[in-house]
Write a structure and sequence with these properties.
Collagenase (Catalytic Domain), globular, 3-stranded antiparallel sheet, 13 helices, single chain, 5-stranded mixed sheet, binds zinc ion, alpha/beta, 378 residues, 13 strands
């Protein structure tokens, strides 16, 4: 067998083909996908498009999304034709007011809100701040985002229960709070050494379907608990029941002090050395914000993106997920803007304030550059 020198060994290991049948889009296909017929600068990728919107990178790992799946991609025009929120007919499962003549999602569903449901603890050090998530997703999407009261998880004796406090009377002077605790045992799996558990998503989705408020466009339960779909899964980041507009997602694997076994679902190691507490929180916030808007993007009808490096790219594993940007490419920004009707510059300005406040340096740099581009193009 010929001996490979070090460099060619690295190159050889890194060449991973796309999934069978997938061809990366050409520049012309990218531009057509944006559907920027009016030549608006906010949806223009610029003359040097790679500066802001490089193409989706070629896979470097066999588990990368595009090495595994032959995604077709969804152009702006396809989105406008397919998106159920832009349809002239009301979404069959929703009970809220509907105005078929409306152009945007909020003109069609004027009461519409996105609900976030905290499932289990969000108070300890490794947790993401729920208010920050709510604030970020509202700015990013341009739709009101509301946090629901927390559903507690009672974890004991190899059993996990969903505990809901359905307070029937609001507390007032001289009156005792009347509340009924509703308890429901969830499907879960446990390992004693190391101590770890995962909640199965199916039952949680059923609970969410019962609980979704009438004026919800969608509702997403978020948890710091690890999740699985079935026995064969190592883990799942989450699951959506799109037709019913509900989803559950976990941030359990977003803590940078953790490393995960690729063989056993319970194989987790923690290394707190060399990780500053603030830095850790920043990383968890960035990763969680990105997951949240990606998943809400799907619930709003946006498919995975194959046109540019983009928040809507599919990801096959955590490392690929962490590498991907939080911003939308022009194809998907155009879809979201048509759906919601926000002012692109004002949205970027509000995002910039959020990124600055939370010292998300990579994001600050990108949005600033994009705002300069837009100011110079007017
Ligand atoms: Zn996705
Ligand atoms: Zn995109």
């Amino acid at each position: 067998m010929p001996k490979l020198n070090k460099k060619s060994a690295v190159l050889e290991r890194r060449f991973v083909p796309y999934a069978r049948g997938f061809t990366p889009p050409t520049k012309r296909i990218q531009l057509t996908a944006i559907g920027n017929d009016k030549n608006l600068p906010e949806f223009s990728s610029g003359t040097d498009s790679d500066q802001y919107f490089p193409p989706v990178p070629q896979p470097t790992d066999i588990d990368d999304w595009l090495a595994q799946y032959c995604e077709e991609g969804q152009t702006y025009r396809e989105f406008c034709q397919e998106c159920p929120w832009l349809s002239l007919r009301k979404w069959v499962y929703t009970k809220q007011k509907f105005n078929s003549k409306g152009k945007t999602i909020l003109e069609k569903y004027p009461e519409g809100k996105i609900y976030l449901l905290p499932l289990g603890e969000f108070d300890s050090d490794h947790c993401v701040n729920f208010d920050h998530l709510r604030e970020f997703s509202q700015i990013y999407l341009g739709i009101e985002v509301v946090s629901l009261p927390r559903v507690k998880l009672d974890i004991k004796d190899r059993s996990i229960s969903w505990i809901e406090d359905s307070a029937s009377v609001a507390p007032s002077r001289g009156q005792r709070t009347s509340s009924r605790l509703k308890k429901h045992t969830l499907n879960a799996r446990f390992n004693s050494k190391p101590k770890h558990y995962q909640i199965c998503v199916d039952e949680v989705l059923l609970k969410l379907k019962e609980k979704i408020p009438d004026d919800a466009l969608c509702m997403i339960a978020l948890t710091m608990s690890d999740l699985c779909g079935d026995e064969t899964d190592l883990f799942v980041a989450g699951m959506a029941a799109g037709k019913h507009r509900v989803a559950i997602f976990s941030f359990a694997r977003y803590d940078p002090t953790l490393t995960f076994d690729i063989g056993d679902w319970y194989g987790i190691k923690q290394d707190l050395k060399g990780m500053d507490c603030e830095e850790r929180k920043k990383i968890i916030l960035q990763r969680s914000c990105k997951l949240l808007v990606h998943e809400i993007g799907h619930l709003l009808g946006i498919d995975h993106c194959i046109f540019y490096d983009c928040c809507m790219n599919g990801s096959g594993h955590l490392q690929e997920d962490f590498r991907q940007p939080i911003h939308l490419c022009p194809v998907d920004l155009h879809k979201l803007q048509t759906l919601v009707g926000f002012n692109v510059t004002k949205r970027y300005q509000a995002l910039l304030r959020f990124y600055e406040k939370h010292e998300m340096h990579r994001e600050v740099k990108w949005v600033r550059a994009r705002l300069h581009y837009l100011a110079a193009s007017c």
